[in-house]
């Protein structure tokens, strides 16, 4: 595997964030080991999206440090190594005139650079990414004409097309029907196992997720648990409320 | 073919300018419409009117302004308005669309004051409001040509960035694309194109040429590139047919161009309906 093997894909040290005088994140310390499939869970409003945006530099935390593969955020330049599917990806303008191919091509724009055009190799890459998520039959369809689950796959392809080492997904299964959800998780799992992609999956749905991920972190303003899935399942027998503090809505998962 | 169009210099000027505008307006219009900022064109055209009225007013007392093509003053105001809109959008972060009525009413207010100071309406002003083929000068042709080159280079080299910024600003930021200055350049380009479309279609109708062809192509195009190409085809068709028929039927060119755009839009709606009703067999 890569030379980064023993540096964490993401390392967060003592990160705090507040809107005005309202704290949303308090002293978060957190690491995603290289090659992990980490599930970040927490109830609505627990600060998951805020944490992701701080990690990506979209929001500036008032204190704390973030680094990718050992490089501090402010000096990090290789953005093509990081794929991001935002929570907003499921509330985009569905009337936007863009084909699946065009949406996925956007994932390469940063890598290709200013004043340059996509070449044949890039076009090949775009088609490959579309194939990886199983959307080859829809290449020239408008994104707005697809189902929620299919759109989500297209956004994953957009995030994958630049060959990232780390993929961050913020609640990707909202609005996706239950049958597609487990398919979707299965696809993520194989990306993790076969391609060695490090994954950070944000969700408020604890049940289904824990069958697929290798690591779990529980967030509610503070980090309440952080470890591998086996440890998580041990602890969660005693109930989630301990890990979240309070106000928890646990989703049952039946086999 | 003997076409009277090409015998008269003023018609040549109008035709050349029209063809360039038929390309420029929809090219920028596509980005404006998909960002749901269609009204920006209206706001900027009204502030451009203020610039033109200011020039006409100043021309009454100063020979310098009298000799100046009012188009330039229009452009100065339009670019100023564009910068104003960008600033106001920062101030009203959560009410971004407020910037448009603010700039628009400022434009109308200023126009009315300048027009009254210039002692009211004259033919010049009327031409700017509704467009006039007779009013297009050689210097206008060159100005629009220069803007055409500028916008062409801008859209060609920043197409990727403009596309991703219109679709998803967050994604653009995460890919390391610096959206702020591209957005700034974009709105300046829009301001320039609006000012230069003025003589042909007129202030009150400029925004129609930016949005109607796009509205028509949105109904039937598949994907962004197609929307782009169809918008330009529709825009050109409207301008060329509009100029020719307004000449032969002795109609106002601006109005004719816009009504042909409306007709194209209606046809595209009808075509879409017809397509949808047809059963799709191969799926
Ligand atoms: N722009 C904002 N201004 C003020 N508060 C905000 C803003 N965005 C989010 N918040 C608050 O921050 C908290 C965390 O939000 P978020 O990170 O979106 O939670 P989650 O993704 O876990 O549902 C919420 O209580 C929310 O109300
Ligand atoms: Mg969230």
TrEMBL record, chain A:
GO terms for molecular function: ATP binding. Pfam families: ABC_tran. It comes from the Bacteria. The keyword Nucleotide-binding applies. Residues 10-245 form the ABC transporter domain. InterPro entries: AAA+_ATPase, ABC_transporter-like_ATP-bd, ABC_transporter-like_CS, Metal_Ion_Import_ABC, P-loop_NTPase. Keywords: ATP-binding, Nucleotide-binding, Transport. Belongs to the ABC transporter superfamily. PANTHER family: METAL TRANSPORT SYSTEM ATP-BINDING PROTEIN TM_0124-RELATED (PTHR42734:SF17). This is Metal ABC transporter ATP-binding protein. The lineage of its organism: Bacteria, Bacillati, Bacillota, Bacilli, Bacillales.
TrEMBL record, chain B:
It is a multi-pass membrane protein. Keywords: Membrane, Transmembrane, Transmembrane helix, Transport. It is found in: Cell membrane; Membrane. The chain crosses the membrane at residues 14-34, 70-86, 98-121, 141-159, 180-197, 228-248, 254-271. SUPFAM superfamilies: ABC transporter involved in vitamin B12 uptake, BtuC. InterPro entries: ABC_BtuC-like, ABC_TroCD. Its main location: membrane. Signal peptide: none annotated. Pfam families: ABC-3. Belongs to the ABC-3 integral membrane protein family. This is Metal ABC transporter permease. It comes from Fictibacillus fluitans.
